[in-house]
């Protein structure tokens, strides 16, 4: 099977834009989140000791089954030389991935958490007539309810934030690179050069003024049209927050990756 790398990290932090740029390289396949992380979890569960027949499954067989799962999913129709699979779950699965793909790399997209919550709230307000999947399609909540909902441990932000810390401070951190959204949109050429260097691939002349990505059908089904929309040109957005000041301040010191003294494994932060 061709080399497999992973895109993960925090939501609303540039993973879709990164995939859209990587797709410009004809050697690469990249897209928005795939179902593979959930499929891996399901297979691990079925091969665990909750299955009384697991006594007949060795770790070598588990490894082969998971590798075959990727090989089957990315079959002959994916002719790319390098695969990038995307899921926020991958940051919490580095131990598993290291058993299946010893040489894998994982690019975790990060962003100041206040602006992530702001971006999610903007998406909710933009689709006021379409209740969101992020809140189980419930109606009548306030911005405070929604901020709490995304930030708690199993929320879309809280889970991915904890998974990112798990990877950053864990023993497999050498597989990890953090790509800041702010860098990607302000200096995309430098950001992409760092990605290529990290994965050991030859540079490619990306077109930052002509980016294409379409996930409109998926976004429509989730009740949030435009959620994964990518602008034609890579630019840094200039805007004020839609969040109340107290909510914005709540998250403004959560960018732990900016603390060089806390980077105990020397993870590359771009």
CATH architecture: 3-Layer(aba) Sandwich
In percent, how much strand structure appears in the residues?
A: 5-15%
Q: Per the principal axes of the C-alpha atoms, what is the gross shape? A: globular
Query: Taking Cα atoms only, what radius of gyration do you get, to the nearest Å?
Result: 19 Å
**Widest beta sheet: strand line-up:** 2-3-1-4-5-6
CATH topology: Rossmann fold
Low-confidence stretches: none
Estimated helix fraction: 40-55%
Query: What separation lies between the terminal Cα atoms?
Result: 29 Å
What is the highest CATH level, the class?
Alpha Beta
Q: List the secondary-structure elements in sequence, H or E.
A: EHEHHEHEHHHEHHHHE
Overall mean pLDDT score? 90
What is the number of independent domains? Answer: 1
CATH level 4 superfamily? P-loop containing nucleotide triphosphate hydrolases
Total helices: the number is: 11
By DSSP, the count of extended strands is 6
Largest sheet: 6 strands, parallel
- By secondary-structure content and strand pairing, the structural class works out as alpha/beta
